[in-house]
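Person: Show me a sequence?

Helper:
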Amino acid sequence: MSAVRRCLALMVVVVALLALAGCQTDESSQDRFQWKPLYGDFTNDTSTVVAKIGDVQITERMLELYIDELPPRLKADFMGPDGERLALKKMIDQSLMVQGAMELKIYNDQDVARQLISQRRNTLDYAMRNYGLLRDNKPNEEDLRAHFAVNKGKFRQQGLVMARHVECLSKDDADLAYQRLQSGDYKNNFPHVVEEMSTNDDTKKEGGNTGWFAKGGFIPFIRGSEQFATAVYDLEMGLHAPIKVADRWHVVEVTHREYERPQTFAEAESQVLKDMLPGWQNSIIKDYLLEARNTYPVEMLGAYTPGQGASAEELFNRAMALPDPDRKLELLSMIHTDYPDDPKADDALFMSANVALDTWQDRRIAERYLIMLIEEYPDSELIEDAKFLNKNLNNPKVLNPQSIEDLRQN
């Protein structure tokens, strides 16, 4: 079960107890405090009722969902008829506790109310981000190819080596094995020498073969395998004199080598998605938050009225000194929202577009910031640069750190 579903399940079981009006002390508070259902997922449940606790009913479907919501490490304890019966008893105990809490109106306690409100807020915030915005929302192939084109240097097929070895306890034994392998006799070929002299029973079964490994990589069944992989990786093809790794001696023959090279898109596609997804998801959330301000107007009052804190100049300087792009964007956004008429407001929007490009290669968010600058500050000294950058967002060179002048030259 996904974290989102567990989170939503928590909202159903616990947070569904919430209604802001419920945290009152008047006689009608319980009527306005929605504490049921305790289980289920708000779908039409027609399954058999398996327990009744007061006016709470538990169905087979609710029992199934309850077990499904448990962490993996606990779920195994509730499998099978006996496990299901134990889970049902726990649901019954929980229902008794909740009904007792309602009888005592514990939801009116300030600490309890605060926890319930906090859980509801955090659950819905998490659900909106991960369920409302990000579920099934992934870059398409065109997006992935564009990311791959700009970041080709990241996606390389690492060099690999395949070898076989004779593992010995002493240098004398290793020297003897090396001499035999050099003789060229049939009885002294690698399979015979490995079978007769290698002390590594695991690799002996494979004729001494190590399999493919990268420099410094892990190799099963070999002591100090990372050290072994580092030493052998740089050896030339063919048979080599004994080398010592950890407390063992090895006679090694390098049999195959794949050199490091750039990956094709087909080879790198899954890694491209993994590399691109965090920035992609971050941009979806940021895009929504920008758009949501048009749907839900934001107004800060009193001591938090825009313009009451640090000056736009101070915020801009702080932002430019920060290495964290998210924090940088927060301060730049504060300039635009708190000081819309300040000379730094258009600078903040322009720099926000650049942060979106340089950090996440996100043209969509960059475009939104640039359009805001163009529409809200038509007399800005940056207007021509903003228009030019906006027109060239599909130019791969835009996604590399460079000046507008350099871009224009291309």
